[in-house]
Amino acid sequence: MNIKANDLSKIYGNGENGVTALSHVNLSIVSGDFISIIGPSGSGKSTLLHLLSGLDRPTFGSVTYDGKEIYRYSEKELSAFRRRRIGFIFQQFHLLPVLTAMENIIMPLLLDRRQPDLNYLNQLAELLGIQERLYHLPHELSGGQQQRIAIARALIAKPDIIFADEPTGNLDSKSGKEVIELLQNVGKKMGKALVLITHDSRIAQMAERQLQIVDGVLSEVKR
Ligand code: ADP
Ligand code: MG
């Protein structure tokens, strides 16, 4: 897998009221990469993640997966592409409160009319230490446990890459660190690329490749 962003820019609004959220970003991501992107609030981190993952459309520039330009896809093709190739993890977990952990985990497959691979599900549950929690509702779980359920959900469709937008923002520093270590570990074992957005420099330093974004401009800090 090879993802390339070429001259990627996003301007919200237009004319005098236009806000340049992202400016001429170039980036290449390959299988197994563990990348952190750090930057202050409002610097364009979420915008970049949305554009790299087909959640929004750029004002200029392109994003290719294995040479294919994803923004040439129709909305329907783009959402199928996201369901199959990309895993997402958010600060707010976004678990459905009326579904058990297990039901939350397999939901992306059900939406795609696919059957879960139970061996793979068990393997994920074991790696993430959530075997005993699969039949609980989200409100019966701690924040760290909820985020581990969300990690399993992000991986269930066997995507190529996981994008995590401030996944530790709602956790205390100890469970935040645990979640990142688990994410890193499970990513390595399963051969997934991981792109982690954070404003916490201690979390950013856990990544192999560290990028920073300031006023929509991306640069490589450590490679
Ligand atoms: P971060 O995730 O680093 O906090 P964002 O990517 O969310 O930053 O935002 C970057 C800039 O773009 C900010 O100035 C923000 O206000 C602006 N922005 C983000 N989303 C929108 C939107 N949908 N409409 C208008 N402006 C937006
Ligand atoms: Mg953000």
Describe this structure in words.
- With 223 residues, this protein is of the alpha/beta class.
- Helix content is 34%, strand content 29%.
- The chain is built from seven helices and ten strands.
- Strands 6-7-8-3-9-10 form a six-stranded mixed beta sheet, with helices on both faces. It has a four-stranded antiparallel beta sheet with strand order 2-1-4-5, with helices on one face.
- A hairpin with a 2-residue loop joins strand 9 and strand 10.
- It is globular, with a radius of gyration of 17 Å.
- The mean pLDDT is 95.
- The protein binds adenosine-5'-diphosphate and magnesium ion.
- Magnesium ion binds next to helix 1.
The parts where pLDDT drops under 50 for at least 5 residues are none
Shape: globular
**How much helicity do the residues have?**
25-40%
| Distinct ligands, ions and cofactors found in the model | adenosine-5'-diphosphate, magnesium ion
Sequence of secondary-structure elements: EEEHEEHEHHHEHEHEE
**Major beta sheet, strand line-up:** 6-7-8-3-9-10
Total strands: the figure is: 10
- The number of helical runs is 7
Give the radius of gyration: 17 Å
The chain-level structural class is alpha/beta
How much of the residues is beta strand, in percent?
Answer: 25-35%
- Termini separation: 19 Å
Characterize the main sheet: 6 strands, mixed
